[in-house]
Model the fold of this input.
Amino acid sequence: MGASVPLARRNILADRRRLATSVLGVGAAVALILLLQGLWGGFRVQISAYEDNVGADLFVGEEGARNFFGVPSVLPLDAVSTIRTIPGVDGADPVAVRFAVLDLHGRKQSIFLVGSVPQRTGGPWDVVAGRAVGRDDEVVVDRSLADQHGIGLGNRIEVMGESFRVVGLSAGTRSWMAGFAFTSHAAIERLLSMPGTTSFVLVRTAKPAAVAEAIRDRTGLTVLTPGELGDNDRALLARIMNGPIYLMLLIAFVAGTLIVALTAYSAIVERIREYGIAKAMGARRGRLLRVVLGQTLIIAVLGTSAGYLIFRGAAWLVVSLRPQMWVRPSLVSVGGAIVAAALMAVLAAVVPTRRIARLDPASVYRG
Amino acid sequence: MAGVPIGRRNLFSERRRTFLGIAGVGVALLMVLALDGIFAGAMREVSRYIDASGADLFVSQRGVRTMHMSSSSIPFAAVERIRMLPGVRWADPILYDSGAVTASEERALTYLIGYAPGRRGGPAPLVAGEEPGPGEIVLDELAAGTLGVGVGGRVETLGRSWRVSGLTTGMTNIVNSVSYVPFDDFAAARGLDGVASYVLVGSDVSTGVMVRRIESATGLTAQTRAGFSAEEGRRVKDMSTELMQIMTFAAFVIGLAVIGLTLYAAILSRQREIGVMKALGARPGRLGRIVLSQAAWTVGAALAVAVLLALGLGWVLGRAAATLPLVVEASSVVRVAVAAAVLGALGALSPLIRVSRVDPATVFRR
Done:
C-alpha cells in the first residue's frame, strides 16, 4: 500500500481498449468545445472584415448609427461633398450596404450587398480573379460563394429582380452568415429605390481623431473608427448568438464529464474487491479518493490532448469543405477547454468516490 | 434460455454505471435535439409577423421572396393596379426595414413596420394602449421591458423621437422584435416617396389564381402567405445547415463513444457468465442478441432521457429566456431516434467482437 504504487495509472491502463474509447469520447467533447469557440472566434473576425480591410480611417453614418451590419444607416448623398470640404479629409466616398437573399440552385443564399463608386474606396480589397466593378450591371462576388454555387466570371446572377454580370471574384469576403457581393453605388440606389441616399461615408485621413470631431461638429452625423464599428458589430452578434453557443458548450461539457465518470466508475467496479482489500489493510479514505481522482485526471489529460488533435483535424476539414467558415481559436478558449477538462475530472470523480466510500471492507471476504 | 432477459439483467446489474451510460448517450442526443429545437423555434418566430398578418398573399419587388435580411421596393402605382384586379378584396402597402429602438442607454433591435393605422399590416393583438397616431410607435412588450418604457414613454428610432402608444405581444425573437409606426411617418423619416416595401393582399379567389393574376399584371413577385412564410423558414434552414452538420457529427461521435463504453463495460463485467453460457453451448447468434438487446435498452432509455431533457430545457428557456424558444418537433425526435439506432448498432460492434472471443475456459479461472 506504499505511496509509490501508482494505483490510479495501473487501474485505468488495465484495459487499453476501454481507455481508448473513453479518451475518444472525452476528446470529442473537448474538440467540440474548441471547435465551437474556434468557429465563434472566426466569425467574430469575419464580421469586421469589411471595416478592417476596406481602407477607410473613419466611417460616417446617420445620427446614432452604431453598426455596419443589421441596423441600416441612411444618409443623404450630399453629405459626401460636405465632408470632403472639411480640412484634414484626404478622401470621402459613399458606400451603400444592404442584406439580400439570392435563390441559387433552389437554395437561399444570404448576401451582403455593397455598392461603391467604381475606382473609389469601398469596393473589394482583394480581387483574386477578373476585375473590379466598372458598370452598374456588374458585380464582384466572394470566391468561395461563387465556387459553392458554380458561378464563374461572365455568368449572370439575379439580385432583387435585376440581372448582374459577374466580372470579378474576391477573397476574404465571406462569413457563415452571408457572403459579400460588390456592385456600384448607383445600382444599389436603383435596387432599393432610394436615390440620393447612401449608408456610410468612408473617410481617409491622417488625423482621425481631429477629423472625426470636425465632421461631428459640421454635420451632426455619427463618426466611428473601423475598430469601434467592428466592436459594435461583434457585440450585436454576441447578443444574438451567445445563448445557443453557451447552451451547446454546456451540453458538451456535461457529455464529457459523464464519459470520464463512466470510465472511472467502470474501472473501479471491476476492481472493487481490490479496493475492499486495500480498505481492509488500512488504506485511508483520502488515499482511495486520490486514486479515483488520479484516474479521472488521467482520462481528462489524455482526452484533452486527443481533443486538441481531433479539433485540429476537424478544423482543417471544416475549412477545406466549407471555406466560408473560419476557425480561430484563441489562447483563452484553449485555456478554457483545459480548465473545463480539469473540472470534468473533478466532477466525474464524485460518483466513483461515493461508491468506494460506501464500500464495506468485509465484502471482500464474501463470495 | 430464450425466456431469460439476460441482456437487460446484465446491463442493469450495476445501476450507477448504466445510469451514467444512459445519461451520457442521452446528453449527446440532447445536443442534436436542442440545436434542432432552437432552430425550429427560430423558424417559428421568424415568420410570426407573416403568419399573423391575416393576408392571403404578400407582394414584393420582383425577385424578392423573403422579408428578413431582405429589402423590397414597390412603386405606389403598382399598389393601385393590384387593388383594381378582380378578386382582390383589399390590398394594403407596408414599409419595412430593420433598425434599433433606443431609450436612455438601452437598445433593442427591431424590424420596423410602417402601416396605415386601421388597415392591415399592423400589430395584432395589442395588449396595452392603442394603434399609433402620428409620431407614435407600438412596441412588443418584451422589447419595451428591455428598454424600460411603457405606454406613454418615449423612444428613438429612424433618427427621431416617438411616443409609445401601445404594446403588442409575441413579436420578439432571438434576434429582434417587431415595432409599428404610421406609414407616412416611416416614409418621411426615411425620405421615401411613392414607394412601399410589400403589399398585403386579401383575395376572394383562390390564392394560386391570384398569384398569377398579380404577377402578370404588375411584374412583381406574389406569394401566398404560407409560401412566403415557408421561404423565410428555408432561409434560416439554409443558413444553418453547415453548423447543424458539424454539431450533429460531433454529437454522433460523443454518443458513439459513450454507448461503446457502456456496452463494453457491461460485457467485461459479465465475462465469466458469458463463458459459462458458451461452455453450456450458447451459439454466437444468441450471445450477439444479448449484446444488441443491451444496445437497444441503452439507446431507447437514452432517447427517452434526451427527449425529456429537451422538453425540460424548452420549458426552462420559455420562462428564463423567452426570446430563445426551444421547440421539440416530432420529426426531430424521429431523426434522432434513427441516428441513435445507428449509434447503438455501431457501439455494439466492439463488445460483439469481445463476446465472440471469450474463451469458455474463463469460467475455471479465478
Notes: Chain A touches chain B through 75 residues (CB under 8 Å). The radius of gyration of chain A is 29 Å. DSSP finds twelve helices and twelve strands in chain A. The CA atoms of residues 156 and 165 of chain A lie 4 Å apart.
